[in-house]
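User: Fold this; tokens only.

Assistant: Input:
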Amino acid sequence: MAVTASVELTPGEAMAWFQAMPCGQRLRSLSPDFGQADTRRAPGLACVHVGFEQGTSRWLHTLHLREVPGFGWAAISPYGYGGPLCNSDEPAFVEKAWSAYQAWARNRSVLGEFCRFHPETQQQRYFLGDVRANRATVSIDLQVQPLESQFNTLARRKLKRAAQVPVRWSRDAQDWRTFGDFYRRAMAAMGAHERYHFGDAYFAAIAALEGVELCICGEGREWLSAGVYLFQQPGPQDAGPGGTLEYHLGASSEAGHATGTAYRLQHAAALEGAARGLAHLYLGGGTSTDDDNPLLFYKRAFSRRERTFHVGNAVHHEVLYGAFAQSRGYHRDSAPPNLLFD
């Protein structure tokens, strides 16, 4: 399907385009079906897949649209990461794709977009808006053996303490329901905002996707730590080891924190990812941009290899966005640097 303008793809078409992308961009969290499932996270989200094609070159973008009442739509990434994927690094093609995408956005009354780019793919080069570095994230090299050689002294000590705790992998529906309750209790104990207390509908939607699994530390009903992991699926065009395992969400009980099973969890994931032939375990970053953030400190215990997380803004419809900014009290010539709906 050769086109000279961006087109909206069906979910099936978008998945076919995604599966033909290079291995380094085909991360599970960036797939169109993950974007579709992620709309269950909050009300009012619509998932759209936009594609541009010229010859054998393709540019694909999965995004969420949220209504801006009285003005149009805001475009945002699915939870975690998003951004365009592309099988060509030719600047002229990327510029054409971006121009066609912005024309599509204006026709769709999309005011602007806030995008979070995956640090493992660095696909911000396909987004020609305003891009800036945000924070450090951590990635484990699964091809280094032994894996524990990348861990710091604290992580190795915690692993030794939790070495006898049973670990299992699951896609069982009852385990997913248990995980939802387990995760929400942990978020409540941490005082996390309610938007991070994902409901059962969200977990049911992502649990149905291929390559999404739970890792559980503990026996029977005594869960100590558990996490959601996204396994990149191999493609027929892939040759040799490659691909990324992603740590999506995780939680520990009070007893789990005391035992150190949060460290056992990531060690088990690294072993499983390596056993399945994946090359990276992406852990993500902290809950803030602070270099001493406690969550970032925890993740740095597993690897000194860091990736930079970038975010991007783009105003697609200047007239509508300007009117919206004015409605929020900003002068047309002095709108804030961050989009008002990010």
